[in-house]
Design a protein that fits this description.
The chain is an alpha+beta fold. About 35% of the residues lie in helices and about 15% in strands. It has one domain (about 10-75). The mean pLDDT is about 95.
Amino acid sequence: MEELRAVRPDEVMKILEVTDSFNLHREKVLIPLQTEEFGTVALQSDGRVRIVCPSAGLTEEWLLELRDRLGRMQQ
């Protein structure tokens, strides 16, 4: 199992660039500072989108997956 780490500010900004492109209000986006091994994207019961960064860091592939998941959530 990989060691968990804290999310860096530049990673938060990359995620917000993606969520901004979907016109998601930033108050509706929850980005915990603790990472998880693979990262997750989930719609919470209160309507907020919870985005957890992967512990290995953001990759272009993961950001594309984030974009895809957000697109499916808005359908």
